[in-house]
Amino acid sequence: MHYIKPILDGYRSHWDSVYVGVTTEPKLRYKQHTRNGWEQMVVLYEAYRADIAIDLERDLIDYAHRCRFRNPITNINPGGESLSTKETSHFLYILLKDKRL
């Protein structure tokens, strides 16, 4: 996790809106998010168990809320709500949006 947090901070310093999530289907999930105006998805980590991905997502969301960065993330839930435990790959991702565009 100590590698992922600085990556998140780097994106938060250059984009106006950042969202943290997990999914088993990144391409499908990105298509769903583009309808809401999200411009880019970055996959940060691939976990082979759902519980690991959920823990990473929750930890990253909690970290983002606690560090009070100049651009807060848009997550309002603690994370881990959307994963199926039947899949073998689970991806931690962030979504990015620039409000100025």
Question: What can you see in these coordinates?
Answer:
The protein has 101 residues and is α+β, with helices and mostly antiparallel strands. The protein has three helices and three strands, in the order αβαβαβ. It has helices spanning 4-12, 26-34, 50-66, and strands spanning 17-23, 40-47, 90-97.
Quote the distance from N terminus to C terminus: 31 Å
Shape: globular
Gyration radius, rounded: 13 Å
Query: Low-confidence runs (pLDDT<50, min 5 residues)?
Result: none
Summarize the structure.
By secondary structure, the chain is of the alpha+beta class. The protein has helices at 4-12, 26-34, 50-66, and strands spanning 17-23, 40-47, 90-97. Strands 1-3-2 form a three-stranded antiparallel sheet, with helices on both faces.
How would the blueprint of this fold be written?
Blueprint: H1 4-12, E1 17-23, H2 26-34, E2 40-47, H3 50-66, E3 90-97
Antiparallel strand pairs: 1-3, 2-3
Features of the shown structure:
single chain, 101 residues, alpha+beta, three-stranded antiparallel β-sheet, 23% strand, globular
